[in-house]
C-alpha cells in the first residue's frame, strides 16, 4: 500500500502487528504523527471488554510540507518520509513477529534532530461507553501512572478488577538516528511493570538486524504457503493485504481475532460477535493453507467449553451447549430457548444457531486437515449444540419435527417458529454427526430428524425468515439462506432446488436499503457457488465502495470480518470443495482470461495448483496430504490425461475420481505442451498500488 499522504483518519492509516501486539500509524493533526498502540488481550476484568492503551506522538521541529508512506507486505514493515520546512525525518516501523516488541526507527537531517516523542495514555474505560450510555454506578479504572525504570520509560494503567497493563519504551540514538523499542504487558493479579520493562531491556541487548531477519523469515514462510495471481490488480492486491492483515491480527496460541484485532479504535463493538462476524473472519484461512492461524478459533472454543454449558438454561445443562450473540474470549453468553409451550427469552436471546455455525468452522478445520484429533474434539461439542435443538423441538400433527420460537440474527421482529437459520444448522449438524459417528447412541434420532424435519418455510418470494415471519424488509444478513452458503446443503448442483435458490436470492437482493459490506461478500459468494463469476465480481467491486483506503471496514467502529470475507469470495472464484468434490475455476469472470494459483487447500486435505491461459484451463495439479479419495471437476475440456501413477475414473459431466496415497500428486492436462506453463504472476489490468494512496481515488 502506497500513501501520497497520511491523514488523521484511522481507516486511512498504515498498520503492523504480530497476532497480539500491533500499531496503526496515521496523523493526529497536520503536524503530528500518531502511532496507536494495541494489544488484543487488554480487556477489563469486570465486563471483559476491550480497552484502549494509548498512542505515541512524533512532532517535528518544523512545519510538515509532505508526508508519504508505504506498507511493504512481503517484509511486514511500514516506512515513510516526513518533509518539513526545517528538514526530513525518514521512519520505518514493524512489530517483531517472534517478540512482543514494536520497533520505530527514524533517520533525521540536521534541522529535525530534536523532534519530540511522547506517549499519551487513554482513559482506561470500556470503549462502548463512547457510543452508549454509561451504566449507573460504573466507575472508570484509575488514571495512568507515568514513570521510569533506568533507561526504560513506562505507563502503568491499573484495573479495578485486579492487576494492570503497562506500556514500556526506550530510545537508542546517535546524532542522526533514533530507534524506539515499545512493548505492552498485562497481568490480572499483580503488576505487569516488570514484565514490560524487562522485554524492552532484553530486546535492546540483541542484534536488531538479526531480529529483523527472523521477523522477515517468518513472514516469507507464511506467504509462501499458497499463491494466487489475478489479472485484476485491485482484487489481487486486496487479497494479499487480507492475508497480511490476518497474520498481523492473530496467530496460533494467541487470542482469537475479534472485530478490530490489535488496531484499537473506539468502537461500540469491543468484543466477539458470533452470529456471522467471527465465522466470516476465519473463512479465508482454510483455502489459503493457513490452518495454523485458523486454529486460534478452535482453541478458543475448546477453552470455553465449560461456559458453553452454562449458557443454556439449567434444565438442559446435562446434555446441551450454546453460545449467545456477543461474548468475550471466555465464551460466556447465555441463550434462552424453551419448548413451544414455555416462554422464550426476549428478542435476540433465543438466537440458538450461533454455536453450531461456529462449529461449522471447527468442522472445516478438520476437513482441510483430516486431523482425527480435531474430529474427536469436535464431536462432543457439535453433539451438545444439536442436543439443545433436540431438547426443545417437537413433532406436530403433520408428523414433522418443528422448532419452537428462535431468533433469526438481527432481522426486525425475527423471532419465529421453524426459523430457517436454525433449520439449516440443525440439518447440517445432524448430517455431520452421522458422518463422524454413525454408530452413536443418538444416531437413530439424528436420522429421524433428517427424514422428518419440516421443510424450510417458503412463500411466493422464496425462503422466509421462518414459519411466522416472511422476508419482507431489507436485511443485511443472509442468515435465512445459510443452507445455500456457506453450508451448501441446498445448492445449484441440485436442479430441483435451482428455482428456490434463484427466487430467494433475487428477492433478498431486491431490498438493498439496509445492506452492509458483508451483504456484498455474501452476494458474491452465493453467485460463485452458482457458477456466476461475472455477477460475483460485480458484487465484489460494489463492496469496494464501502471498504476504506487501508482495506479496513467500519460500522461506527471497526468490524474486521467484511474485507476478510471478500478474500474468501475471491478464493471461491478459483476453487471450491464443498460437498466432497473439488471444483477448479468454477466461477471465473469472463474478463479473466489468464489465472494461476498454487497450493490452495481443499477439504480432504489436498493442495491444488492450476494454470488458466486464454480462457482455458491448461493443467491442474493435485497433491494429497493424507491419502483421501478424490473427486474433482478440473474444468479441462476434451480428453483428459494424467501425469502420475493414478487411475482416473470418468464420472461424467466433467467429474473424475481417483485415489492418491499420502504425499502423492498427479497433474491433469489435455495437451502435453501445456505442462511447460508455470504458476507465475499473470499480466494485469488496472492501476498498481491501488490501496492506501488517498489522492486519485
UniProtKB/TrEMBL annotation:
Domain Glycosyl hydrolase family 95 catalytic: 232-551
Gene Ontology molecular function terms on file: alpha-L-fucosidase activity
Xref: InterPro entries: 6-hairpin_glycosidase_sf, 6hp_glycosidase-like_sf, AFCA-like_C, GH95_cat
Any GO BP annotation: carbohydrate metabolic process
Residue ranges occupied by any Alpha fucosidase A-like C-terminal domain in the UniProt entry: 576-666
Domain of life: Bacteria
Protein source organism: Flavobacterium gilvum
Descriptive protein name: Alpha-L-fucosidase
Amino acid at each position: 500500500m502506497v500513501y501520497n499522504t497520511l491523514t488523521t483518519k484511522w481507516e486511512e492509516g498504515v498498520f503492523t502487528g504480530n497476532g497480539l501486539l500491533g500499531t496503526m500509524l496515521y496523523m493526529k493533526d497536520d503536524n503530528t504523527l500518531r502511532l496507536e498502540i494495541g494489544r488484543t488481550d487488554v480487556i477489563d476484568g469486570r465486563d471483559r471488554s476491550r480497552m484502549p492503551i494509548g498512542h505515541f506522538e512524533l512532532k517535528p521541529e518544523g512545519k510538515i510540507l509532505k508526508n508519504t508512506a508505504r506498507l511493504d507486505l512481503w517484509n511486514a514493515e511500514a516506512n515513510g518520509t516526513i518533509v518539513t520546512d526545517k528538514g526530513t525525518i525518514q521512519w520505518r516501523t514493524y512489530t517483531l513477529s517472534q517478540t512482543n516488541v514494536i520497533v520505530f526507527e527514524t533517520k533525521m537531517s540536521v534541522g529535525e534532530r530534536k523532534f519530540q516523542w511522547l506517549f499519551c495514555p487513554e482513559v482506561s474505560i470500556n470503549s462502548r461507553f463512547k457510543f452508549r450510555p454509561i451504566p449507573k454506578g460504573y466507575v472508570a479504572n484509575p488514571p495512568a501512572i507515568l514513570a521510569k525504570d533506568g533507561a526504560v520509560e513506562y505507563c502503568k494503567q491499573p484495573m479495578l478488577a485486579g492487576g494492570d497493563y503497562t506500556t514500556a519504551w526506550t530510545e537508542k540514538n546517535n546524532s542522526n538516528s533514533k530507534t524506539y523499542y515499545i512493548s505492552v504487558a498485562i497481568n490480572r493479579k499483580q503488576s505487569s511493570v516488570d514484565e514490560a520493562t524487562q522485554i524492552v531491556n532484553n530486546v535492546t541487548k540483541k542484534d536488531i538486524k538479526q531480529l529483523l531477519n527472523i521477523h522477515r523469515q517468518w513472514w516469507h514462510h507464511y506467504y509462501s504457503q499458497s499463491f494466487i495471481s489475478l489479472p485484476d490488480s485491485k482484487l489481487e492486491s486486496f487479497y494479499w493485504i487480507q492475508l497480511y492483515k490476518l497474520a498481523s491480527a492473530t496467530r496460533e496460541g494467541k487470542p482469537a481475532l475479534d472485530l478490530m484485532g490489535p488496531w484499537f479504535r473506539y468502537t461500540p463493538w469491543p468484543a466477539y460477535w458470533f452470529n456471522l462476524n467471527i465465522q466470516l473472519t476465519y473463512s479465508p484461512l482454510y483455502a489459503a493453507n493457513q490452518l495454523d492461524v485458523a486454529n486460534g478459533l478452535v482453541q478458543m472454543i475448546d477453552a470455553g467449553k465449560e461456559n458453553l454449558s452454562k449458557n443454556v438454561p439449567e434444565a438442559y445443562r446435562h446434555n446441551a451447549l450454546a453460545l449467545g450473540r456477543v461474548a468475550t474470549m471466555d465464551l460466556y453468553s447465555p441463550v434462552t430457548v424453551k419448548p413451544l409451550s414455555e416462554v422464550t427469552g426476549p428478542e435476540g436471546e433465543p438466537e440458538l444457531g450461533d454455536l453450531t455455525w461456529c462449529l461449522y468452522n471447527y468442522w472445516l478445520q478438520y476437513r482441510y486437515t483430516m486431523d482425527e484429533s480435531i474430529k474427536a474434539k469436535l464431536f462432543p461439542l457439535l453433539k451438545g449444540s444439536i442436543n439443545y435443538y433436540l431438547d426443545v423441538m417437537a413433532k406436530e400433527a403433520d408428523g414433522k419435527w418443528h422448532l419452537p420460537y428462535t431468533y433469526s440474527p438481527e432481522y426486525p421482529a425475527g423471532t419465529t417458529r421453524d426459523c430457517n437459520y436454525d433449520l439449516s444448522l440443525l440439518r447440517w449438524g445432524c448430517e455431520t454427526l452421522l458422518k463422524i459417528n454413525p454408530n452413536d447412541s443418538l444416531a437413530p434420532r439424528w436420522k429421524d430428524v433428517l427424514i422428518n424435519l419440516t421443510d424450510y418455510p417458503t412463500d411466493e418470494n422464496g425462503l422466509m425468515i421462518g414459519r411466522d415471519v416472511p422476508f419482507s424488509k431489507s436485511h443485511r444478513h443472509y442468515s435465512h439462506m445459510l443452507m445455500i452458503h456457506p453450508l451448501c446443503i441446498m445448492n445449484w448442483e441440485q436442479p430441483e432446488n435451482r428455482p428456490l435458490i434463484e427466487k430467494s436470492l433475487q428477492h433478498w437482493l431486491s431490498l438493498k436499503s439496509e445492506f452492509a459490506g458483508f451483504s456484498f461478500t455474501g452476494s458474491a459468494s452465493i453467485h460463485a457457488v452458482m457458477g456466476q463469476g461475472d455477477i460475483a465480481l460485480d458484487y465484489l467491486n460494489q463492496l469496494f465502495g464501502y471498504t476504506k483506503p487501508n482495506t479496513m471496514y467500519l460500522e461506527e467502529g471497526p468490524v474486521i470480518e467484511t474485507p476478510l470475507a471478500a478474500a474468501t469470495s475471491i478464493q471461491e472464484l478459483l476453487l471450491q470443495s464443498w460437498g466432497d468434490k473439488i471444483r477448479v475455476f468454477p466461477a471465473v469472470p469472463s474478463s479473466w482470461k489468464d489465472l494461476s494459483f498454487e497450493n490452495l487447500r481443499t477439504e480432504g486435505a489436498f493442495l491444488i495448483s492450476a494454470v488458466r491461459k486464454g480462457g482455458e484451463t491448461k493443467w491442474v495439479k493435485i497433491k494429497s496430504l493424507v491419502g483421501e479419495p478424490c473427486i474433482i471437476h478440473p474444468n479441462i475440456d476434451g480428453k483428459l490425461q494424467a501425469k502420475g501413477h493414478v487411475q482416473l475414473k470418468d464420472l461424467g459431466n466433467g467429474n473424475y475420481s481417483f485415489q492418491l496415497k499420502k504425499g502423492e500428486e498427479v497433474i491433469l492436462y489435455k495437451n502435453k505442451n501445456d505442462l511447460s506453463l508455470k504458476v507465475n504472476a499473470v499480466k494485469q489490468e488496472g492501476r498498481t498500488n491501488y490501496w492506501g494512496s488517498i489522492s486519485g481515488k
